[in-house]
Amino acid sequence: MQNPEKVQNAASVITSALSGMPGQGGRPPRPRVGVVCGTGLGGLAEALADARPLPYSQVPGFPQSTVASHEGRFLFGRIGTVDVVLQQGRCHLYEGYAPEDVCMGVRVMATLGVEVLIITNAAGALNPRWDAGDLMLLTDHVNFTGRSPLTGPNHDAWGPRFPDMSAPYDAALGRIAMEEAARLGVRLERGVYAGVPGPQMETPAETRMYRHLGADAVGMSTVLEVIAARHMGLRVLGISCLTNKNLPDCMKEAPLEEVIRVAGEAGDKLTRLVAAVVERV
Ligand code: HPA
């Protein structure tokens, strides 16, 4: 379990930094929506009005991502009339971080007052009907990491010892996302995300197994952050950018450059979709 004092301290430092950055109307930003930007969603930064960055290096105890394709900062601003905070860059289990480090961003955003979490990622498509470059709305997930951010003593002020996971992804937010995708002409599939520890990609036998066990896409993030978010009562919307096809009988290599390239190409529609959803939450 996360150290509550560490999270509170990080949130306090951010709050005082924000009080020195008044935005529209002379008041500091009060984000109600937080967006975790996975690979490819960097473009959302440009959709932000009144954007004010805060590097993780200025937040005490905040873990830095060692992945070159991930920036390391919060970005506070507005989309339409909605105050948002972007988490640009996250850390992962495969970097050697503990579950509580992986979830610190979510804990801090919730402590700052965020009520809705939009979480995005790059993932491999296990569903054979889908293509690289498609987007997938997460309807559910399977936590294959073998880890949980809730292991250890529970901090009751955050949430219950045994948080419910019968509806990890918010159905109403999912409906808004489907409607906005249709309006924008963006293809948005719906499916189950398998969260794995990585960093190695899957063998053919592993992709066959994940598919048989009910997953439509596989990736190396998100599930722990969603557990922490649900523990704190946040409403969650999850969207994967499917960067490669992951089919057991015709496996192809999916080098990082390819994942980043496809995520970058699909990033524009993901950005437009997320921006449209934020305006309606
Ligand atoms: N597997 C795991 N993680 C990923 C993949 C994949 O195929 N593509 C992007 N992230």
TrEMBL record:
Its EC number is 2.4.2.1. The keyword Hydrolase does not apply. The keyword Transferase applies. Gene3D superfamilies: Nucleoside phosphorylase domain. InterPro entries: Nucleoside_phosphorylase_d, Nucleoside_phosphorylase_sf, Pur_Nuc_Pase_Ino/Guo-sp, Purine_phosphorylase. Pathway: Purine metabolism; purine nucleoside salvage. One of its GO terms (molecular function) is purine-nucleoside phosphorylase activity. Residues 32-279 form the Nucleoside phosphorylase domain. Keywords: Glycosyltransferase, Transferase. Belongs to the PNP/MTAP phosphorylase family. The purine nucleoside phosphorylases catalyze the phosphorolytic breakdown of the N-glycosidic bond in the beta-(deoxy)ribonucleoside molecules, with the formation of the corresponding free purine bases and pentose-1-phosphate. PANTHER family: METHYLTHIOADENOSINE/PURINE NUCLEOSIDE PHOSPHORYLASE, PURINE NUCLEOSIDE PHOSPHORYLASE-RELATED. This is Purine nucleoside phosphorylase.
